[in-house]
Amino acid sequence: MPTSTSARLAGQFALVTGASSGIGAAVAVALGAHGAAVAVNYGHDADGANATVKTITDAGGTAFAVQADVSKEDQVQAMFQQAIERLGGLHIVVSNAGIQVDAALVDMTLEQWQKVIDVNLTGQFLCVREAARTFIKRGMQPDVSKALGKIICMSSVHEVIPWAGHVNYATSKGGIMQLMKSSAQELAPHKIRVNSIGPGAIKTHINTAAWDTPEAEASLLKLIPYARVGEPDDIGQLAAWLASDEADYITGQTIFMDGGMTLYPGFAAGG
Ligand code: NAD
């Protein structure tokens, strides 16, 4: 967890979805450590969300938990309303919630396909749309940030790397790329920045089986030139910087944070 007390995001209000565990929790904690007050969204895991809130408040920050299923329009709208009422507005939205429901293509049910698209892609659309509406309605606050608002979508290396056995997940992340870029193009004149973070392998619940035994980790490391599996706080610190005015000229980009996973490591020895 971060120890920085820099006030890079002082006076800003943030909402992070899926912040009861993993990357979302680390992003919420990092934003809090950098001075933002944070609405910590969770789907079902209230204990996890409360733990994230406690980490932020124990460090002197401001945070509260807010329940919503990001795939449900009415719940997303109610979540934004609650965050705005509790915090007084929003400047940063990190759309992070995501799931995997894996199956071979030939075995994948429509339900397995739809569930992942609903949470990972429709959930992102609902949050990006609501964030833009919220920022535009509030108007510019030049003393708080150079941008009207900042949106960060949690994508994946699988927005560009195909993934057999995970066609629903990889499709959702490929979709996020165009959701993010098209939204960034449309919202730039409003001075809203929209970007994605594309994590590689990060140690969280979503992929425990890929790193929790020495054999699994050794196999995973063959895909990572930098030779370590990522930690949630790697992503948290990037999100805090990307949301700050130090990144004010960045919009419409996916920043891969993957220890080189997108460098086609299979070609390192000549292919
Ligand atoms: P995680 O399982 O710890 O976190 C996912 C979070 O999303 C959980 O808190 C979960 O409760 C929440 N969530 C799921 N469905 C929800 C819903 N309908 N409404 C609200 N919240 C919901 O896993 P993670 O690795 O921290 O995943 C976070 C994001 O990072 C996901 O979008 C995932 O695709 C992405 N990602 C993770 C990795 C990795 O290696 N861990 C790599 C690339 C991308």
TrEMBL record:
Which Gene3D superfamilies does the record associate with it? NAD(P)-binding Rossmann-like Domain (3.40.50.720)
One Pfam family this sequence matches: adh_short_C2
Q: Which CDD domains match?
A: GlcDH_SDR_c
**InterPro entries for this protein:** NAD(P)-bd_dom_sf, SDR_fam
Taxonomic superkingdom: Bacteria
Family to which the UniProt record says this protein belongs = Belongs to the short-chain dehydrogenases/reductases (SDR) family.
NCBIfam families, sorted: PRK07231.1 (NF005559)
Tell me the protein's name.
SDR family oxidoreductase
Protein's organism: Hymenobacter ginsengisoli
Give the classification, highest ranks.
Bacteria, Pseudomonadati, Bacteroidota, Cytophagia, Cytophagales
